[in-house]
Amino acid sequence: MRKRAAIIFFCMALFLTMGVPGLAHGAEGDPVPVADWPALKAAVEAGGAIVLELPPTIEADSTITVPASAEVVLVAHASGSRIIRQSLKTGEFIVSAGAKLTLRGSMTIAHDTNLNGASFVQVQSGGELLLEAQLTADADNVEYGNQNTDRKGEFIKSLIDCSGTLTMVEGSQVSGWTQNKQADRHNVSYDPGAAIRISGQGARFIMDGGTITGNTNTKVVNTMASSCVQILDGAIFQMDGGSISGNSKDGQNSSGQRESSTLGGGVYVEGSTFYMNGGTISDNEAPDGRRQTAGGGRRRRRLPGRRLQPVHDGREHFREHALYPQQRGARRGVYVSSKSAFRMESANTETPARISDNTLYTDFGLYRYYQYSGGGVYVAGTFTMKDGIISGNKAMTGSGNGGGGIFNGGNVTLQGGEVSGNSAFYDETHTAYLSYGGGIFNKTESVFSATGTKISGNTAVYGGGIYGTNADITLTDCLLEGNAAIYGDMMDCGGGGLLLTRQSTLTISNTVIRNNTSEKYGGGLYLEEMGATTVLGAGVSLLDNSAASIGGGLVNVASPTEISGATVSGNQAADGAGAANMSGGTLTLSGGMVTGNTAASTGGGIVNSEATFRMIGGMMFNNLAGDAGADVAN
388-432, pLDDT tens digit by residue? Predict the structure, then answer.
């Protein structure tokens, strides 16, 4: 009887459709209401162009396929439509190659326990989904399956799984998706599902507007891909507007610990390309998939020796525990894999593309797993930013790396724009642990280049603005301003503006480093064991930086550095206000000027301690010291 009623209803719907002028040729008319799922299935699978209106509640008892060449528009009831799955694998729309499905209105996809058994929409290669709707997933998502049964992805699905084209427009939304018990991506050959999963060559996600928010995952096992947006296996994501915000912020275990995803709280890019021309990625979280080990508490250190020789006398201790962090994984707002590219270019400079206020957490009391690096963007591949903004991101890191704004493990190029107000600390009160690169962390063998970029107001223990270890750094026409190295509850810190170490190289021109601070060493620059001579030429300025202890403008340790045309002025420190040349360093003044710097104790211009200083040109004058060596102290 039910089947007969469905057939009768479908015939009536078809008759009404034929009566709408132009609808058979793809134009839209008034929606045809459907009463139940069988009627909806019959109407859609008949093919052609049709506009259908869902009832307020509809129970889904099967899968519906949109056939090739069909153009189907599903419109929610005026009060919204609730699609209730009768089983874990029903209620899925499959959009065939050559077909188009458009969703409009407010739609809720629901099940008593779990939605992970089937996607809501699966778009095959060559198919198209236009999302004008507000999609909300509604299920408790209790634990379903285990890591063994999940290995082939049998129970790991996405709300939208697209191998064709997905377009989101203004007013659309995807929210409420909870991915349950994802398998460790390092132990399986696939990436688990997400709210939106775009995969395969030719697959494309165009986000012209709309919002992706409130998606998360639970029962995380080790390092998981994002539960929000995944771009995989040669796919392209083009973000021209809209926002990806407030994801990976929920999900708790019985102890109240949050169990969110770790690889890209907002966007995860693996073997694919992400173009961000506009829009905002903000307020996403991602804790890492590594358990805290025994003995992993904070290290408190007092460096031995006289005040003028803290780096020298305590150097091995300082190097082992401080300047050279352990470089581990884990990633946050956007994760870019080693075979992926991320280009962030603002199409409209008045409303620039923005990655802001994303957080990487370490708090083991709050999170079951913790992570180490990259509050805003984690880069293992390539990242190019033009006129974008990366601001207010936090790498709340413990015993690891940092990179509040950017963690660079590959190749990063910045053209204009700004990296500002980011931080790398264990918590909001600047509990230190070992944190590096408040603005940007550059990993071993990484390449970083910035032209015309403002790097300001970033904070960390080491390298408030920029940190690099065995990295290749180029700064051209840049401004490093108001960054800070803060020791928190540690006993040392360094490099308010920039700290480079372990055979790094720095090529710098026409760049101003000013008003940066350090609560210990190197308010402006801290260079240690550099791989080549650093030349501070004409157009480079170290102005009004300060260090509570040594090296207001510059600390040079075991490195060859030449001031050939730079201006070093207005800097302050207890010792070596302009520059502190330490522990086997070679500092040459061949041009430029060192003037107007003030040391509370010694070396208003330069303090030289067990190092080599040569003056073969340039000018040094009007520097002040409270005790000795107004210009130079040895």
Answer: 999 999 887 655 568 999 999 999 999 999 999 999 876 665 555
Which H or E element spans position 11? helix 2-18
- How far are the Cα atoms of 72, 95, 128, 235 from residue 98, in angstroms, in the given order? 12, 8, 8, 18
Cβ–Cβ < 8 Å for 581, 589: no
DSSP 202: T
Which amino acid would we find at residue 335?
Y
How many angstroms separate the Cα of 157 from the Cα of each of 131, 166, 202? 19, 17, 20
DSSP string of 108-167, one letter each residue: EEE-SS-STTS-SEEE-TT-EEEEEEEEEEE------S-TTGGGGTTT---SEEESSEEE
CA distance 388 to 352: 6
More confident residue, 320 or 245: 245
What average pLDDT score do residues 328-338 get? Answer: 68
Give 36-77 pLDDT, tens digit per residue.
Answer: 999 999 999 999 999 999 999 999 999 999 999 999 999 999
| Least confident segment among 252-266, 319-333, 465-479, 560-574 | 319-333
Region at 11 (left for phi over 0; alpha for psi -120 to 50; beta for the rest): alpha
Q: Report, in this order, helix, strand and coil percent for the chain, each rounded to 5.
A: 5, 40, 50
- What is the SS3 string spanning 481-525? ECCEECCCCCCCCECCCEEEECCCEEEEECCEEECCEECCECCCE
| Nearest-angstrom CA–CA distance, 193 and 180 | 9
Kind and range of the H or E run holding 39: helix 37-45
Classify 325 as helix, strand or coil.
Answer: coil
272 within 8 A of 231, measured Cβ to Cβ: yes
Please name the helix (run of DSSP H) or strand (run of DSSP E) that holds residue 60, with its range, or none.
Answer: strand 57-60
Structure tokens at 214: 């409130």
As a whole number, mean pLDDT of residues 259-264 equals 48
- Tokens found for residue 79: 């009060």
Name the CA dihedral angle for 494, 495, 500, 506, rounded to a multiple of 10 degrees.
-160
Residue 556 contacts by C-beta under 8 Å, 6 or more apart in sequence? 527, 579, 580, 581, 582, 585, 587, 611
Q: Residue 525 pLDDT more than 60?
A: yes
The answer to whether 631 touches 604, Cβ cutoff 8 Å, is yes
Cβ-proximal residues to 319 (8 Å cutoff; 6+ apart), any chain: none
Contact criterion met (CB below 8 Å) for 287 and 260? yes
pTM for the structure as a whole: 0.86
Alpha-carbon distance values, 272 to 16, 71, 236 (Å):
45, 29, 6
The pLDDT > 90 percentage for the chain reads 64
Q: What is the mean pLDDT of the chain?
A: 82
Question: 2: buried, middle or exposed (CB in 10 Å: 19+, 13-18, 0-12)?
Answer: exposed
Phi, psi of 323 (to 5 degrees): -70, -25
Is residue 433 within 8 Å of 402, Cβ to Cβ? Answer: no
Cα(194)–Cα(191) distance, integer angstroms: 9
Query: Crossing angle for the helix pair 2-18 and 37-45, nearest 10 degrees?
Result: 50
Of residues 524, 454, 459, the one with CA closest to residue 487? 459
Q: For residues 49 and 55, is the Cβ–Cβ distance under 8 A?
A: no
Which pLDDT score, from 0 to 100, does residue 303 have?
A: 25
